[in-house]
């Protein structure tokens, strides 16, 4: 499903490697955490997999496609295959909760009617149906994260990627967010979550990819460290 082979990433020609010689495989339906100190390259790794950044060297395969070689015209396909929630959720505060979720469907060419029905189904899955007419600014931090999740999954991606989705949330909101991810993971969505939250990983970990400056660890639950 996701395979990186000898991937290097630096930003700019003469700058240092943020990621150096990373190889990994993530199978369909896995739930994987990406951990590591600030600045180590967690977001960079997620962006390479989502096709938002390009590897400087090495190959990145998603759903059997070399996305580092993907022509620009194939990018919409990748956008639909991978739902992404970045650290800054980029919610649109000039329209309603429902309209925020409808927008990616309209962009993908759906009729307004079927887009509204699917957007409502997505809001239902994250427990926000009763707030569809609110402005996102009126939502709590945890609710805004859930809205960002609804928007990311409304196109039914096979892969869901989230960058620090529980940062700045209290414990109960973080648990609720995690239960939403687990629900999607349980119906087969491959889920990658970058986090600093040790408690979250301890409670949910199946596999942790730990990114440190110059080092990389693939820690599978149940395997000796
Ligand atoms: N677009 C960019 N241009 C130049 N340097 C960048 C860019 N994006 C990230 N970097 C640098 O790459 C390094 C890794 O950043 P990244 O955001 O991947 O780390 P991170 O592990 O996700 O950090 P954090 O936990 O603080 O979010 C940092 O030194 C950062 O300054």
UniProtKB/TrEMBL annotation:
GO terms for biological process: amino acid transport; cell division. GO terms for cellular component: plasma membrane. The keyword Nucleotide-binding applies. Keywords: Amino-acid transport, ATP-binding, Cell cycle, Cell division, Cell membrane, Membrane, Nucleotide-binding, Translocase, Transport. Residues 2-225 form the ABC transporter domain. PROSITE patterns: ABC_TRANSPORTER_1, ABC_TRANSPORTER_2. GO terms for molecular function: ATP binding; ATP hydrolysis activity; transmembrane transporter activity. Belongs to the ABC transporter superfamily. Part of the ABC transporter FtsEX involved in cellular division. Important for assembly or stability of the septal ring. This is Cell division ATP-binding protein FtsE. It comes from Corticimicrobacter populi.
């Amino acid at each position: 499903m996701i395979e990186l082979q000898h991937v290097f990433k630096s930003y700019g020609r003469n700058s240092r490697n943020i990621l150096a010689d990373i190889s990994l495989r993530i199978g369909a339906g896995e739930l994987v955490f990406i951990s590591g100190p600030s600045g180590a390259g967690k977001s960079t790794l997620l962006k390479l997999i989502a096709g938002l950044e390009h590897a400087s060297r090495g190959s990145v395969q998603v759903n059997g496609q070399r996305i580092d070689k993907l022509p620009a015209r194939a990018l919409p396909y990748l956008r639909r295959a991978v739902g992404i929630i970045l650290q800054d959720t980029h919610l649109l505060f000039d329209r309603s909760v429902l309209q925020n979720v409808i927008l990616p469907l309209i962009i993908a060419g759906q009729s307004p009617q079927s887009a509204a029905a699917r957007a409502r189904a997505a809001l239902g899955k994250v427990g926000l149906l009763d707030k569809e007419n609110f402005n996102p600014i009126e939502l709590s931090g945890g609710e805004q994260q859930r809205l960002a999740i609804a928007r990311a999954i409304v196109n039914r991606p096979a892969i869901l990627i989230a960058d620090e989705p529980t940062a700045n949330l209290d414990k109960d909101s973080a648990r609720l967010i995690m239960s939403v991810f687990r629900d999607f993971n349980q119906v087969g969505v491959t889920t990658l979550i970058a986090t600093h939250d040790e408690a979250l990983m301890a409670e949910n970990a199946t596999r942790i990819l730990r990114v440190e400056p110059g080092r990389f660890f693939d820690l599978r639950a149940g395997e000796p460290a």
